[in-house]
């Protein structure tokens, strides 16, 4: 049962990924060729949508952790997603909901405000749906492993690996089969297939309800964090105690939010410890009220450490933003590059430009499989760690690989433009340049390898280091780093387009003809930002403090006494 229920919960995520990647991968083609948007506006529309879809998980996580639990959050969010997909499919099928096709010798008519409105509402609904699915599915699957299982830690890190593998496999289907359907059969079927897939996933997920392990929501985590901050501020003039054993603890209050065990006191951010100092007045008042404290004035050590854990995760969270900024270029400018290059495999068949991300996904899948089956067993012999290496090391490796991905992308763009210039095609943006699209494979593949290290490590980090009552929220933090990365890409593109403009229409990023721009400079700018980000990450990782957790495990003997074990994950 323990292996079946995580698999059933993943079916929803797999279909969601087929749906979102099915139109996101090739969306720039839909926006520029069907709705006739300028390329910079289309690129920013995609990154804005991706950013919003990665920001809404904060809402879904809050609802799941505070009120209804993960199952019902996933279910309702999936229905919202389904409505958005139906709307998007309808807009692609009904001719009046998109501008007329371009006619030879005439300026293409852009989509009207009403047509764009339908598009944006559809994307908003899918973004809201993603907000309930993304932070809850992965933590809901991990919840299916019992806390008392001694192999739970090993099972969860394997689960994260194979969660990402399943997600990558579904994305692979999207960037091959669905992109081919969109380019060669039509956008109605291209959007319709993932719409049907999403409906199937909802049914599959709901049917599994009786066999899932359901954990009750434990109240608003944001309220608890705020209570600690308020209590610490109110006691800002109180002297810090020298003995941490004098700080307030109450297992009855903390039990609903600490099934895995209470967080132990750490010496960092000692100002927050003031929230757990019991004053003489509070001792008297708690005696009168049968030991019930006012949590806005007095917090337990566990709750104080919850806030410390969230704060400590912040710098590591931020390190993932630049990587996503680099990664997102695959769906915008790398795709535009591919559309100008020779994509023929045979005389009659050519690779759709949107399907080039297949190399990212294939590399990611191969890397995940080799990491789990080959790398971890070898690394385990040297480190003694069940997971082979720490998730912080894994993330650092991913950041290094990503630097090489954007560095190489700049050199490939120089090569592409040189061939265009040599053949006199630099002034012909619609002509196919006689250079193989496979020149782009290294940058796509390196991004896939970087994701297998950085993104999975990031996901594992958030689940492991977050307070257990905030795991949906922690998964939302993972997606908000993706959101911030996409928004930063939008900002970066806008700034570069504005400030790199010169006389005679010169610009690093040209709307009319990328071959006459200097896209390689943009890639190298991103490379430079990643180098700075790596240095920042190394400092953050070096000084990061893992959360210390007191785990209660039942000892099977005549005494029936609980054994307390200190866990400090590495």
Structure description:
With 570 residues, this protein is mostly helical. It folds into three domains: 1-217, Growth Hormone, Chain: A (Up-down Bundle), CATH 1.20.1250.20; 221-304, no CATH class; 313-570, Growth Hormone, Chain: A, CATH 1.20.1250. It is 64% helix and 3% strand. The chain has 17 helices and four strands. It has helices at 4-24, 27-34, 39-55, 57-93, 113-143, 152-184, 187-207, 221-234, 251-254, 280-288, 301-327, 333-339, 358-383, 391-422, 441-465, 471-499, 519-542, and strands at 341-342, 433-436, 549-554, 562-567. It has a two-stranded parallel ribbon with strand order 1-2. Strand 3 (549-554) and strand 4 (562-567) form a beta hairpin. Helix 1 (4-24) packs antiparallel against helix 5 (113-143) and helix 11 (301-327) packs antiparallel against helix 17. The longest helix has 37 residues, at 57-93. The chain is globular.
What would the keywords be for this entry?
globular; two-stranded parallel sheet; 17 helices; 570 residues; transmembrane transporter activity; Growth Hormone, Chain: A; Nitrite transporter; POT_fam; mainly alpha; disordered C terminus; two-stranded antiparallel ribbon; MFS_trans_sf
